[in-house]
Amino acid sequence: MDLLDMVNSFIDKGYGVINVNDHVDVQKGNKDDDYDSDDDGEDSHDVEEIKDSLKRLFSFNGDEARRKATLQVQKACRNVINDNPSSSDFKMQLMACLRDQGFDAGLCKSKWEKNGKVPSGYHEYIDVNINETRYIIGVSLVEEFQIARPTESYTSLLDVFPQIAVCKVKELKMIVRIMCDAIGKSMKQQQMPVPPWRRHGYVKAKWFGPYKRITSDESAAKIMSVASKEAIGFLSFPGRSCYKSQRQDHVGNKLNFEGGNLAMVMNGAT
């Protein structure tokens, strides 16, 4: 049984099968957005299975291109002025730094309209194409799945997330499906409704719906030029589209790479 079948076996009882196509149609019905299960308890064995599946999805699994891209993203993050991974400025600068390193990186902008219980939304993320394979980059991806009053079991799933995640589209789809299902279970046990922005239909629209991809150095330079005017104590390097701080301590400590997360980035989850 491969990983896709394993994931389907324990999260898709009554929910159908994960769609592994690159795009999803957010205008279609979202019947899987309502978590409806008679199982209110948490089986420790099931939780461990889910954690193991997440670790496998985040690991490199012999994908050398993915490993190298992850290491380059880690290095590029140190050259970004903005220390907020969710900001547009951070993502634009990170994309520009990766392109400076020779990667076919792009800033992707997805946007969708309200449909049923799925509210309208907008999201930006970075992707990179390597050997005709598309990878999606997530810095602090765990923030996309944080919820109020999480159960202990759900928190243990968040602990699996690395600081930097570089995933194929199919892998990220499986991660999203696992986590949205876990959100439904956690919030049901806490007798809380799932907020619209944490439902599966909304979350999957962020990465798997139609998007516009920006790759031009001109677009990157324009946005980063605005950022550099607002920054104090930063220098630009001629011929480069990413900037470094004059304060070395700021550059070296913008992202808090915990020991466990760094080990996962360097070696892959086990």
From TrEMBL:
Residues 33-46 have a biased composition (Acidic residues). Transmembrane segments: none annotated. Pfam families: PDDEXK_6. Residues 26-46 are annotated as: Disordered. InterPro entries: PDDEXK-like (IPR006502). This is DUF506 family protein. It comes from Artemisia annua.
